[in-house]
Amino acid sequence: MNVVKVQKQQQYVTIKGTKDGLTLHLDDSCSFDQLLQELEEMLSLKQYIHGSGPVIGVKVKVGNRFVNKDQREKLESMITQKRNLIVETIDSNVMTKDEALRLKRETEVTSVAKIVRSGQILQVNGDLLLIGDVNPGGTIMATGNIFVLGALRGIAHAGADGNNEAVIAASMLKPAQLRISETINRSPDHLSSEENEMECAYLNENGEMVIERLQQLTHLRPNLTRFEGGI
Q1: In angstroms, rounded to a whole number, what is the distance separating the alpha carbons of residues 52 and 74?
Q2: Closest Cα partner for 160 from 202, 134, 123?
Q3: E strand or H helix at 112
Q4: Sheet holding 85-91: strands in order across?
Q5: If pLDDT is split at 50, 70 and 90, which confidence band does 67 have?
Q6: pTM of the predicted model, to two decimals?
Q7: Element of type H or E holding 4
């Protein structure tokens, strides 16, 4: 008696429903054409073909597959065509060299030991750690966060490329002007304590600039530190 083994076809597309919509997990070991074919078959099921009703958000996860602009457009077109689906994100674990370099510039910390005097401007990409003072008339700028181990009496502009999550912290916070992204606080309505506690400035959920004790920073911006171990 001959026994014929039928090998089950590998599934390249997995669809999971969440309270926020749908998540598509796309296999990264097959060809892109195979992926599109199975995706079309999966989305042709009755529950996905209607174009009426509420719009459902879709998050696409492509794993260790790099998808270029043309492939992203094909995925979006495939998912949304004649369906009440909208693509919110397409997440990949890989990126181009240019994207990696840009991310490195945005997240690296530049350390500078100097006094920024009146008329001087110190500007960096990423985070700035200044070991020294910013005198009245001096200006420091960063696309990321600003940390001053000294007195900040001049102008500080964090999140200069539009990062509303950026913060400004200093050992002594008595600035002429603070700016985070596009929000400016020319004269903070705040008096430092007699103990000259280290303080920080950030934007709250309403886009308003708030000044707090530095100890609050870990609660306000939990992702600020990359150290995940316990103490």
Answers
A1: 22
A2: 123
A3: strand 109-113
A4: 13-18, 21-26, 56-61, 85-91
A5: confident
A6: 0.56
A7: none
Residue 188 vs residue 99, higher pLDDT: 99
- Tell me how far apart the alpha carbons of residues 48 and 133 are, in angstroms, rounded to a whole number: 60
Highest mean pLDDT among 17-21, 40-44, 104-108, 201-205: 201-205
Distance of alpha carbon 214 from alpha carbon 198, whole angstroms:
5
Name the residue among 212, 210, 201, 196 with its Cα closest to residue 150. 196
pLDDT tens, residue by residue, 127-169: 999 999 999 999 999 999 999 999 999 999 999 989 999 999 9
Give the residue among 5, 13, 70 at the shortest CA–CA distance from 36. Answer: 13
- DSSP secondary structure, 157-197, as one string: EESTTS-TT--EEEEEE--SEEEETTEEESS-S----TT--
The percentage of residues in the chain with a pLDDT greater than 70, rounded to a whole number, is 81
Structure tokens at 179: 């700016």
- CA 196 to chain centroid, in Å, comes to 32
What residue has token string 């996860």? 61
* C-alpha to C-alpha distance for 58 and 37, rounded to whole angstroms: 18
Sign of torsion over alpha carbons 6, 37, 92, 70: positive
Orientation of helix 32-43 relative to helix 69-80, angle to 10°: 20
